């Protein structure tokens, strides 16, 4: 842990939030009942920016109803005189952060109302609110205010850079064809006591522990609480998702391994199943016409650090691709951090994945 001044000092949280006066909009906090309004607004931005996705009202409702989000103080919606939503801004935190405490800002301005200074003032409000959230966290950790942007969204890039954000991470959206004419899906044999299994609720928390372990050495990743892990699943496809279980783990060796985290150690002592790799997948049907093809999306893929090199994640991913193909999907899609320390980008290339789109994460480090 670096030698840091108290988070209350580093966050430089203002006592009051800046007003948003540009555009002569009327402002109020969002509610879960605004899910359809926010969905239509987000999709108008996505369409104007030629983004490779659209949102559903169920996805947005999941985001707005997250238990750790207080919309009354962490959101702002701006309406014009006709009552149309013209701008939206959110500033949120995540409860499970233990290495870096983070605040996320997202939202934007309707394409018809850009160029009036609304986005600049709204972002200033979001950053100020993010600073307040970080200061109030009481977590004496490195801190970050983060925002995301599609590579093609030059307007947002300029807005974030002018507000003091810097691009820190770059993500590649990868596609792998399926079906006739596509490369064959690899056959992967698991050795020893490793076993491929379909997703099941009984293995879900064990998979969360595997994910937290797999991503402990990934920049920007933080452990997920059970509440975080099980939220936002409106498009989740359990029938397409797979895990790898070690049916006879060397418990003594794992408990003695410094890489074994405390939560996993507790589960091992209790005799809980040990998930060592996983591929959790989703079906984003609203994106099919936008991309021009149907696909299965691998949103979460990883291997416990002690099990790397044993092809467990490849087995889960290959099983996922077969599930997609059996369901008539034309492609497999996933998103990867281009600086992933596990070398995943090269692995995906070897399996036939090719970059189609890109995005980046901007941040202010505190």
TrEMBL record:
Residue ranges of every copy of the N-acetyltransferase domain listed in the record: 25-195, 238-366
InterPro entries: Acyl_CoA_acyltransferase, GNAT_dom
Ranges that cross the membrane: none
GO molecular function: acyltransferase activity, transferring groups other than amino-acyl groups
Stated name of the protein: N-acetyltransferase domain-containing protein
Protein species of origin: Agrococcus pavilionensis RW1
């Amino acid at each position: 842990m670096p030698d840091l001044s108290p988070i209350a000092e580093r966050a430089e949280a203002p006592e009051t939030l800046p007003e948003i006066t540009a555009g002569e909009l009327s402002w109020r906090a969002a509610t879960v009942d605004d899910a359809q309004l926010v969905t239509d607004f987000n999709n108008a931005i996505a369409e104007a920016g030629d983004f490779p996705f659209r949102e559903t009202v169920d996805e947005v409702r999941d985001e707005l109803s997250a238990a750790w989000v207080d919309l009354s103080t962490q959101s702002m919606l701006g309406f014009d005189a006709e009552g149309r939503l013209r701008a939206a801004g959110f500033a949120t935190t995540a409860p499970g952060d233990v290495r870096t405490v983070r605040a996320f800002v997202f939202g934007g301005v309707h394409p018809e109302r850009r160029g009036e200074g609304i986005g600049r003032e709204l972002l200033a409000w979001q950053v100020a609110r993010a600073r307040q959230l970080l200061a109030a966290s009481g977590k004496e950790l490195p801190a970050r205010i983060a925002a995301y942007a599609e590579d093609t969204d030059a307007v947002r890039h300029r807005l974030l850079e002018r507000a003091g954000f810097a691009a820190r991470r770059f993500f590649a959206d990868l596609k792998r064809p399926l079906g006739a004419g596509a490369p064959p899906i690899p056959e992967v044999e698991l050795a020893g006591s490793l076993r491929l299994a379909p997703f099941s609720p009984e293995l879900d928390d064990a998979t969360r522990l595997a994910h937290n372990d797999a991503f402990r050495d990934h920049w920007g990743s933080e452990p997920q609480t059970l509440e975080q892990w099980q939220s936002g699943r409106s498009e989740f496809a359990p029938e397409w998702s797979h895990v790898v279980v070690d049916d006879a783990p060397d418990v003594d060796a794992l408990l003695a391994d410094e890489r074994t985290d405390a939560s996993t150690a507790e589960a091992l002592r209790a005799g809980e199943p040990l998930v060592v790799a996983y591929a959790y997948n989703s079906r984003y049907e609203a994106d099919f016409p936008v991309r021009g093809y149907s696909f299965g999306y691998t949103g979460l893929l990883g291997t416990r650090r002690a099990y790397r090199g044993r092809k467990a994640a490849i087995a889960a991913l290959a099983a996922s691709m077969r599930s997609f193909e059996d369901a008539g999907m034309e492609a497999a899609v996933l998103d990867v951090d281009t600086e992933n320390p596990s070398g995943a980008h090269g692995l995906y290339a070897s399996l036939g994945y090719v970059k189609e789109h890109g995005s980046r994460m901007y941040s202010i480090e505190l």
